[in-house]
Specification:
CATH superfamily of the largest domain in chain A: MucB/RseB, C-terminal domain
Number of strands of chain B: 0
Shape of chain A: rod-shaped
Radius of gyration of chain A: 45 Å
CATH architecture of the largest domain in chain B: Orthogonal Bundle
Number of helices of chain A: 8
Largest sheet of chain B: none
Order of helices and strands of chain A: HHHHHHEHEEEEEEH
Structural class of chain A: alpha+beta
Helix content of chain B: 55-70%
Number of strands of chain A: 7
CATH topology of the largest domain in chain B: Rna Polymerase Sigma Factor, Chain: A
CATH class of the largest domain in chain B: Mainly Alpha
Oligomer: heterodimer
Largest sheet of chain A: 7 strands, antiparallel
Number of domains of chain B: 2
CATH topology of the largest domain in chain A: Phosphorylase Kinase, domain 1
Number of domains of chain A: 3
Largest interface: A-B, 46 and 54 residues
CATH architecture of the largest domain in chain A: 2-Layer Sandwich
Shape of chain B: globular
Distance between the termini of chain A: 126 Å
Order of helices and strands of chain B: HHHHHHH
Number of helices of chain B: 7
Strand content of chain B: under 5%
Distance between the termini of chain B: 56 Å
Chain lengths: 266, 168
């Protein structure tokens, strides 16, 4: 005969048994009053639970719990959400379009960045007396070779003796990553210890010629660019001297290989 | 026209009843059911398992209820005493289970036992379906039921269970 476990009694009380097992349990209960009492107790528990809570299932269902109503609400909500999403996408693409079209208006021109960098470097290093340059003018041949290699273009040292300026020396500077990443600064000094600097980078990607005069943070800057380099002459001289110096630097550097050519004389 | 919605609709009274027994609060229970229906209806076809709609709905309801409890763990729990039905005929006879006492005893059960007991005793679900809803093996379900029943027996002051003999 099958062993009647407590689980079987419980399953019987819960009405979970198949007919054959049910018969077995009933036979067992008939012979065992204690087991019958146990089953009766379980059934009374279930009865009590149903008495307590079953009435909630018979109450009229409120409208908000009607699936058709919920489905309709969800559809409406979804339509609204799609509407919002569509509007958002349209606004976003509109914004992107305008932003892209207006890009040149907001992107500072390369010359502005280079002039700012040149003036900053000028301001920092003209104030130095002992460490104004990395390589002094005594070693000007090395200076020229070194900077030429770093900038990847030939860079001669303009001769500004005609304007009363002598080369102090030069140094290598970090530059804008998208504009070659490096810059050379040459420093000149006159008898009164007035200094000017020449800030040179390799040519911009567009390699277009350009010219610009600017007054930036109290310094005068003359900028130009050609297919080989960009150059910014920075100083705080009187306008006429500034012009003369700039013209001399421009002429010598844009003539190409200044070291091969005879030195320019005013 | 929409057989899925019809199937869901047929389950609403049971879901309300079960939620009411779990939460002991009419508004909380109906909120829970509404939440459950919204999720089920908005996700049909996406996540619905191939099985019966009823089991799926109960699973969603239970998960929402557990999440809600987790969120409210640190808040004081309120029991709406009005939601406890008074016995229709309070006849204090031996073995009679006072209903209010029973309600309190059920409230005091650990959640996993209460969930299981109500699925079987209140909803009358087959063990297999209740186990599937709770995502537990049937043996685990039965042991939870057994422990729940024993706890109720103790709490409602019924004399200790009779010793069971095994019949060969």
């Amino acid at each position: 005969m099958t062993e009647i476990t407590r689980d079987m009694l419980m399953a019987y009380a819960d009405g979970q048994l198949e007919a054959d097992q049910r018969l077995l349990v009933e036979a067992h209960l008939a012979a065992n009053p204690e087991a019958a009492a146990e089953v009766a107790l379980l059934q009374r528990q279930s009865d009590a639970i149903r008495t307590l809570f079953a009435p909630a299932g018979a109450e009229p269902v409120p409208t908000r719990l009607r699936p058709t109503r919920i489905a309709a609400d969800l559809r409406r909500q979804q339509r609204r959400q799609w509407g919002w999403a569509a509007a958002a996408v349209m606004l976003l693409s509109l914004g992107l379009g305008i932003g892209f079209a207006a890009r040149p208006l907001f992107d500072p021109p390369a010359s502005a960045t280079l002039i700012a960098d040149a003036v900053n470097a000028h301001t920092v290093y003209v104030a130095e007396s002992r460490h104004a340059v990395e390589v002094g003018s005594a070693d000007s041949e090395h200076l020229s070779t070194w900077l030429s290699n770093r900038l990847d273009t030939h860079l001669g040292m303009p001769d500004l003796a005609g304007e009363g300026f002598a080369l102090v020396g030069g140094r290598l500077l970090p530059g804008e990553p998208d504009k070659g990443g490096r810059a050379a600064q040459l420093m000149y000094e006159d008898a009164d210890k007035q200094r000017i600097t020449v800030y040179v980078t390799a040519a911009l990607p567009d390699a277009r010629p350009a010219y610009q005069l600017a007054n930036y943070q109290g310094a005068e800057a003359f900028y130009w660019a050609n297919a080989r380099i960009t150059c910014t002459v920075v100083g705080t001289l009187a306008p006429e001297r500034m012009q003369a110096v700039s013209r001399a630097v421009y002429t010598q550097l844009s003539e190409g290989d200044v070291t091969a050519a005879p030195p320019y004389r005013g | 026209m929409d057989s899925f919605l019809d199937q869901v609709e047929a389950c609403v009274p049971a879901l309300r009843r079960y939620a009411r027994a779990l939460t002991r609060n009419l508004d909380l229970a109906d909120d829970l059911v509404q939440d459950c229906l919204e999720r089920a209806i908005s996700r049909r076809g996406l996540f619905r398992p191939s099985g019966p709609v009823r089991a799926w709905l109960f699973t969603i309801l239970l998960n929402l209820h557990r999440n809600g409890l987790r969120a409210a763990r640190h808040q004081a729990s309120t029991v709406d005493l009005d939601s406890i039905a008074e016995p229709a005929t309070p006849a204090p006879q031996p073995g009679h289970l006072a209903l209010a006492e029973m309600a309190r005893a059920i409230d005091a059960l650990p959640l996993e036992q209460k969930e299981a007991l109500l699925l079987v005793a209140l909803e009358g679900l087959p063990y297999a379906e209740a186990a599937a809803i709770l995502k537990i093996p049937q043996g685990t379900l039965m042991s939870r039921l057994g422990r729940a029943r024993a706890a109720l027996r103790l709490a409602t002051g019924t004399p200790a269970e009779p010793h069971l003999r095994t019949v060969k």
